[in-house]
Amino acid sequence: MAKKIKKAPGWLGLSEDRTSFVYIPERAEIVRQIFELSIAGLGGYTIAKLLNSKKVPAFGTSKRWDQSTIHNMLSSRATIGEYQRKQTIEGKEHPVGYPEPGYYPPVIQESLFQAAQEARQRNLAIGRGRKGRLITNLFAGLTTCAYCNSPVKFHSNGNSKSLICEAVLERDECFKFGWSYGDFERSFFEFLDENRALPDFSEQLVNLRIGIEERAHGDIYNARAEIMRIVKASVLRLTIASAGMPPPSSRLGGPIRRNHPKRSFTATFNDDSSRTGYLALPQKRSNQKFDSVELSKSLRLSPRQGTLTALLAEGETLSFAAEKLGLTLATARWHLREIFKKTDTHSQVELIRLAEATCSPK
Question: How is 139-151 classified by DSSP, letter by letter?
Fold first, then answer.
């Protein structure tokens, strides 16, 4: 029996004899990616913006993805093969009869579909995050208080953005300390980078830093979205001790204070392992000078790569080093990746430490 093309979802087409549905491979892969992003904790708005920024072609006549399209796809059981006949009444579609399983070839497994539904319910339960241009809070739903086990919320008061225990915000009993969001994010990023805790994280952190240097909002957004996906796919919980461990002997009244000097956090990963991280001190520009020729010989780098390593170890940014060497930023980025391979390092922090251990600065 011939199928009707209008009944096919956007990721399917018809066979040549029009008797069966077939995948459109590139679209089927996009559907799977959307479900995986949802499971990782990204909302419909963020997924749509990420796809648009990467110029992923939308299905149908629209040239852009939007939030409603993502939500409709994530809730559509056509992705697991079901067909539901519908009737339009006063401009709205209503289901008619029972769904027909196996009508379409499933584009995802039912376990993936169910995992996405559970993730969407969790997102609704913790409240919708702000739809900032650069994703304001990467840790929504992960953070809990080390003292009372309440959720730790993102709190904005003008230009002041902090992570604060929900019990404190609701004036219940807990230690009245918060952690400045930017400071926490930087500390957590350095913790992951130095410990090599998550696959692909360090590469995205490099991309984020380059985007910030170039003030390229699209690159910043993409890197932050990827970092959020990686973190939420791998971290079960972030337990925050905003007032240190152990906390002060008495509970503090009055206004909420921020940035206790002994603040720390514990990350629990999917394999149930846990690691504790601490405040990352602001990076200071180095006054030391490195011999690029000696670095090249010791680390078996090309002369240009030795100079690039020396500049980074001296505290210069990658964009500054690229300009000084007469390179495009993309070429400098390629050289940095080659340096990582040759030196078996995975981040600029590791590379600088290796440079310091290998070649005594002047």
Answer: TTTTEEETTT-PB
